[in-house]
Write a structure and sequence with these properties.
Blueprint (H helix, E strand, L loop, with lengths): L1 E5 L5 E6 L7 H16 L4 E6 L3 E4 L5 E4 L20 H18 L6 E6 L1 H12 L6 E5 L9 H9 L6 E7 L7 H14 L3 E6 L8 H17 L3
Parallel strand pairs: 2-3, 2-6, 6-7, 7-8, 8-9
Antiparallel strand pairs: 1-3, 4-5
Helix pairs in contact: 1-6, 2-3, 4-5
Length: about 230
């Protein structure tokens, strides 16, 4: 099930993926707010907020819940092991949404994927695993799944014309996905030579804040103006 926000007559497209155990409803208000502010800047955007499959999660004792990938342990550190279970299937969900939007006529350079926590890890993985780059990717309070070996993909994408731009955001007091995870994502992407805006919010736990949404709006506006239709 996918929740859609925005205009049918659009020229840009954003996919936003929720976190573990959540649904698109958890991010609908924030995405609506961002979309309204971007509309005031002249952008016509369609947002798709997909719902994760319902499947067992190891770190929660095998409890069945919405989840983009299996998690072995929480809190998550840059070195927390993962099996990669369910991740490929979720990447395929995002890839199919992107392919459908390209078939609709939206340039890849005006497509952005993003998400929070587990959804941000999915957005990062999906963006870097694309055969051709998209305009941007946003990673809120997330990490690079070790099993995905994303450093290899980051180096490949960095060499492509119109390489993907990234927004990486993290709270300094996040006890669920440790701040070091955001730092590691930033380092991986910059080492590959990719453009990264890295934001740390003092005192923010595993959550979001108004400044983060401000930064999201600025990032999207910048990407779309750079890749003007």
């Amino acid at each position: 099930m996918t929740t859609t926000i925005g205009e049918d007559a659009h020229d840009a497209y954003i996919i936003w993926a929720h976190g573990l155990g959540d649904t698109p409803a958890g991010w609908r208000l924030a995405c609506n707010t961002a979309n309204q502010r971007l509309a005031e800047k002249g952008h016509k955007i369609k947002w798709d907020l997909p719902k994760a499959p319902t499947q067992p999660v190891s770190c929660n004792g095998g409890m069945v819940m919405t989840s983009w990938m299996d998690l072995e342990d929480i809190p998550i550190t840059p070195s927390t092991p993962d099996t990669g279970k369910d991740l490929d299937g979720s990447v395929d969900i995002i890839s199919k949404l992107v392919d459908a939007e390209v078939a609709f006529g939206t340039p890849r350079s005006r497509i952005i994927v993003g998400g929070f926590s587990q959804g941000g890890a999915l957005a990062l993985t999906s963006a870097l695993k694309m055969k051709e780059p998209i305009g941007g990717a946003c990673c809120f309070s997330s990490w690079a799944p070790p099993s995905a070996e994303l450093a290899i993909d980051a180096s490949r994408i960095a060499k492509e014309a119109g390489a993907t731009a990234f927004l990486v955001c993290h709270g300094s007091s996040d006890g669920t996905v440790l701040p070091e995870c955001g730092q590691a994502v930033h380092k991986m992407l910059t080492t590959a030579g990719l453009q990264v805006d890295f934001k740390v919010y003092p005192g923010m736990a595993h959550s979001s804040c108004a400044q983060e949404i401000d930064d999201l709006v600025t990032f999207i506006d910048t990407v779309l103006k750079k890749n003007d239709k």
